[in-house]
Known about the structure:
The complex is a heterodimer of chains A (111) and B (115). Chain A has no helices and eleven strands.
Amino acid sequence: QQQVKQSPQSLIVQKGGISIINCAYENTAFDYFPWYQQFPGKGPALLIAIRPDVSEKKEGRFTISFNKSAKQFSLHIMDSQPGDSATYFCAANQAGTALIFGKGTTLSVSS
Amino acid sequence: GAVVSQHPSRVICKSGTSVKIECRSLDFQATTMFWYRQFPKQSLMLMATSNEGSKATYEQGVEKDKFLINHASLTLSTLTVTSAHPEDSSFYICSATTGQPYEQYFGPGTRLTVT
Lengths: 111, 115
């Protein structure tokens, strides 16, 4: 499988702060880059996704930044809340194929 | 949005027995379903790709005779873990595509514990 490298492995942020998670990919054929949120014992839930024709996408407190030339994309969570404490996975794929996931980032937001 | 269900949510079985996990798309027809396995504190690893009416495609290192996948209809795919062993204990998650190229929805997962 083509790799998607994710960092950091864990992250602690104060309430109200900005959480930033980064991912890098290898396969230039990938054309879909979603972020998933997963709580313990639950399946992953789609947070936000981006296609390579745009460099940034914002939905509420969540923003994806995409750098096609560097083959990197990142998730920014603004005004982080304790309820955002979860594991976040970046992923990538080509249309119709299985998603390739990063290793995940465990986010803890302290109140 | 599209809903994917899995049954059972948790199952405990004895070593050497087989267990079947169902994945259903509740409000759409899924041309393709994917099966993932997730060990504690690890990422989702793709096991196989399942297309309705055809044989599943397994990822390298996944034993097709041990993990039997059947995609008999456009709304149901099953994963049967045969002769389960404790090392098969894991969280199994399916996802389904709607036919739109980038829409993929995940089920809630099934926790398998083999004793």
